[in-house]
Amino acid sequence: RSTLFPYTTLFRSRDKYGVYDEIARDLSMSTTCDRIMMSVESIKNLYGSNLVHYDETVIEQARKQHFILENMEAAQTGHQFKPYFQPKHSLHTDRTGGAEVLVRWIHPQQGFMNPGEFIPLFEENGFVARMDFYIWEEACKALRSWKDKGWPVVPLSVNMSRKDFDVPDVVAKLVSLVDTYGLEHDLLHIEVTESTISGDPTRLANIVRELHEAGFVIELDDFGSGYSSIATLNELTLDVLKLDMSLVRKDDPKVENSALKFAVMMGKMLNLKLVAEGVETAEQVERLRGMGCDYIQGFYYCRPLPQADFEAYLQKE
Ligand code: C2E
Ligand code: CA
Ligand code: CA
What we know:
four-stranded mixed β-sheet; binds ligand C2E
């Protein structure tokens, strides 16, 4: 329902109000209403937010979302999703001991997009499962090509999101993928988060167990980011614990960081390898080394790199 005042429109949808200040005289009433409606949509799920003023950023965001949803399928068939590789530096060998594969979307017109811009939308509409499978295959192709060239290979970690667990026979599909490329299963590490298994813990923990039994290495991602519970550590068959960057960030040499120490201690008690994420300074590296961390992943050593640059990085090493 909208009410027109000389230059201001107020739109109400249930208990949410949208306001369009200073409407240009040449803007039609229906466009005005569409824009306010979009603004109201943006606060639809925000408890306690009842009023929104239209501004260009809301429309820009809506346009971007629309673009992403319209173009995602073409992006996959057109090979616009690119795997980037971020080294995991081993503190034991002082060399790269693995890498995480992180997706980037490189659109011919739109340019470079980070996963934060599109993964949440894909998780909502389920497309993430198709995109992930594509990225897993890209990881397998990379490993195969390194082996064919006779290079020493490092294992690659891929991300598995909540929706991937709903794909029928996901374990068999992963096994068949890795077998198609003739790879040892432990060359593929699978990163799962605790939030992934919340909701239906038994079914999802069973899938993780099957993946583990099939020989994949299981890494618990974002540990200590807020969802952590000791129960999860018991439920899941894990090999690696990835300490979330928020735990590492809070590590100030002047302050006792009990949460980080506790997380490290738990990992050790459970016989898990420890990877610290988001490490940016030499000081952090040394403290994590002192605590007994096994791997460091972070800008201090290297940012995520396109495949050719990652290969050059390994060769230089
Ligand atoms: P994540 O799995 O926790 O990945 C680590 C993120 O931290 C990456 O962001 C990486 O670029 C960033 N990072 C690494 N070292 C540092 C550091 O020293 N400082 C800072 N500030 N950041 C660092 P990215 O690539 O933007 O990915 C964001 C998230 O998107 C990932 O978080 C993951 O949840 C998701 N994601 C990325 N690629 C995929 C994918 O192929 N599939 C799925 N399902 N999710 C993905
Ligand atoms: Ca990850
Ligand atoms: Ca992480």
